[in-house]
Amino acid sequence: MRINEYLHFLNTNHTLYNAMKKAEQDEHLLTKEAHRAAHHLRIDFEKGGIHLSSEKLDRVNQLHMEIFKLSAEFGENIAIDPGHVDVYPASLIPKNIHHLLTPIHCSTSGPSGGSRGEKGFRITTDPRNLVSVLQWVSDEKVRKSSYIKGISVPYANIEVLDKLIAARHELAELMGYRSYAEFTVKQNLASSPEVVTSFLCEMSEVIRPRADQEFEAIRKFKREKCGNNCIDLEPWDEAYYTGMMKSSAQNLNSLIVASYFPLPHCIEGLKVLVKSLFGATFHNVPMAPGESWHPDVIKMVLHHPQEGDLGYLYLDLYSRKGKYPGCANFTIKGGCRISETEYQLPVVALVCNFSGSHSSSTVRLTHCEVETLFHEFGHSLHSLLSRTDYQHFSGTRVALDFAEMPSNLFEYFAWDYRVLKTFAKHYSSGEVIPESLVKSMHCARDMFAATELQRQIFYALVDQTLFGEQADSSRDTSSIVADLKRQYTSWKHVEGTHWQIRFSHLLNYGAGYYTYLYARCFSATIWKKLLHEDPLSLATGTAIRTKLLQHGGAKEPAEMMNDLVGEGIIRYCNGGIVPNMTSFLDELGLVEDQLLGPLLQSSKR
Fold first, then answer.
1. Rounded to 5 degrees, what are φ and ψ at 476?
2. What does the alpha-carbon distance between residue 158 and residue 164 come to, in Å, rounded to a whole number?
């Protein structure tokens, strides 16, 4: 709150704003980056409303504080009210997820379903537990009740979300925009919500036939397993039956896969990547008294033999009570040029929540967790390898629909056998992960690729619609979500549920969720054109560093990507820029020849 108040003070300082306007108009600025910095800083001031009349500015300030408080309330409600379902008897819950649930005893016979004294489990329907229950519990009634409860709470967020949408819309209108989506997207590559929606609908149309085929395959599998008892395929069936189909088709066991990914080996894998691609090395360094916020934290310096130290990385990887949830990369200090001879080195923290502790030698990651670690490491390197003159452009401080590209690119290394064999070794025998196992992992990932992609498109369309033009303010968010799900997915909507009230991306990525799909398309093209043949090439890594990563936000993203890859990575569409999606869809096997033609033609326009 204190930082937020201080930033607000700076963003409403007219002396600073007038100096920035003057600097932008100065034709004698020494570099393009200096002029770009003045331009972007002036825009940032005006996004805070400093250029408006005092009356409008007062209202903008009120709205900023209101939005901040509503966002905090939305997140707090999710933490306070995750929902729960009581299940009897305990035998309905498989042993492999017992550790996630709370054992209970039925005190009275009644609507809970248990008999007096009967043992059961309380399922707290937070996202982590819900995913496990939907994947592993065979009883459909348990899955159904857990699913419905999990996406119907916290009910208080229905009103909070309505207020948040209204506040953001009013803010955008005061700034002269038709919607909050337009206000957000204007400075991005896409430049307008219309371009974003066109991109999402185009991708949706291309993958719909395959998504429908996958839906029918899952429904057929369920009917084979359930016989006459099967009525139809429901949303709470997806994770359970697709998990069974993947395991049976590829003979995959998640515990066996995890045995090849002890966390210390995975950290070594990150070091191998940096050494191979950039010729740099990570070394542990001691911390000053009071520098570390927890004993689990380690500090490493990124060092280049010719250039010296490049930056510092804190690793805080283990779960503990009261810690920030999830996984994220935090910039503690951005890089910038202080003088002709001195450069402020970037400092970042990579924070995860893996089970275990620093003192434990048995921490093994699922492959999904490995992929997440590599993703966040991509963000870290974007900051550590950045060499901008101004901190305003350091590392990940780029256009929102470009920011996720480096992190998505680094996910590819977590799937490539030529990279995995350098560090993925069995925790006890030291055996290198078999190539056949990695191929099975690939096949399992791609089995329902269209279904997963369709879900991401749906999320992005919900985000754009909720923060788009408010043509009919009488419509509630749940009916909007229901209509979009019916229109853009193969799955039915469950009446009475409110999935959007627990979708926290609406806070930090309001009108910006589409950026994940932009990033996946950009990174797919870069991988195919530069890294597919040799993912550990120093020459390629050097090109990625010098033509893209080191510039942060100091250059236009389209200019950097064209310089790195050449033509074909972007398309121009109605005044905005969209990614060429061909490489991404092709690598997942989602584009048949007859569908690929129109995309290839449109990429040339």
1. -85, 160
2. 10
| CA geometry: angle 508, 514, 515, nearest 5 deg | 75
Lowest-confidence pick of 60-64, 113-117, 158-162, 173-177: 113-117
Read off the pLDDT of residues 214-255 as tens digits, 9 standing for 90 and up. Answer: 999 999 999 999 987 777 999 999 999 999 999 888 888 889
**CA distance readout (Å), 554 to 11, 16, 497, 525:** 21, 21, 44, 22
3-state secondary structure of 303: strand
Two structure tokens written together for 15 = 């002396």
As to burial, measured by CB atoms within 10 angstroms (0-12 exposed, 13-18 middle, 19+ buried), residue 507 is: middle
Concerning whether 404 is annotated as a catalytic residue, the answer is no
Helices (H), 431-504: 435-446, 449-466, 477-488
212 class by beta-carbon count within 10 Å (0-12 exposed, 13-18 middle, 19+ buried): middle
Q: Which long-range contacts (CB under 8 A, 24 or more apart) does 492-500 make?
A: 492/234, 492/235, 494/147, 494/148, 494/151, 494/234, 494/235, 496/148, 496/152, 497/148, 497/151, 497/152, 498/151, 498/152, 498/155, 498/157, 498/158, 499/151, 500/161, 500/462, 500/466
| Secondary structure (3-state) at 240 | helix
pLDDT tens-digit readout, 502-531: 999 999 889 999 999 999 999 999 999 999
Average confidence score pLDDT of the chain: 92
Question: Tens of pLDDT along 47-88?
Answer: 989 999 999 999 998 998 899 999 999 999 998 999 999 999
Please name the helix (run of DSSP H) or strand (run of DSSP E) that holds residue 318, with its range, or none. strand 308-318
- The residue type of 42 is R
Whole-angstrom distance between the N-terminal and C-terminal Cα of the chain? 47
Radius of gyration for the chain, computed over Cα atoms and rounded to the nearest angstrom: 25
- Where do we find the tokens 């819309």? 169
Could you tell me the CA-to-CA distances from 419 to 37, 408, 415, 535, 537 in Å, in that order? 38, 16, 8, 7, 11
Any idea what DSSP says for residue 367?
H
Which residue type does 177 have?
Y
Q: Report the SS3 class of residue 286.
A: coil
**Token representation of residue 123:** 């399922």
Strand partners, 349: 314, 330
Distance CA 63, CA 164 (A): 10
Single-letter amino acid code for the residue at 583: S
Establish how many alpha carbons lie within 13 A of residue 566's alpha carbon, considering only the half-sphere containing its beta carbon.
Answer: 3
Catalytic annotation, pick one of 214, 376, 411, 587: 376
The residue among 133, 155, 136, 131 whose CA lies nearest residue 85 is 133
Residue 450 phi, psi (nearest 5): -70, -40
Q: Tokens at residue 40, please?
A: 């972007």
Write the DSSP string, 10-65.
HHT-HHHHHHHHHHHH-TT-SSHHHHHHHHHHHHHHHHTTTTS-HHHHHHHHHHHH
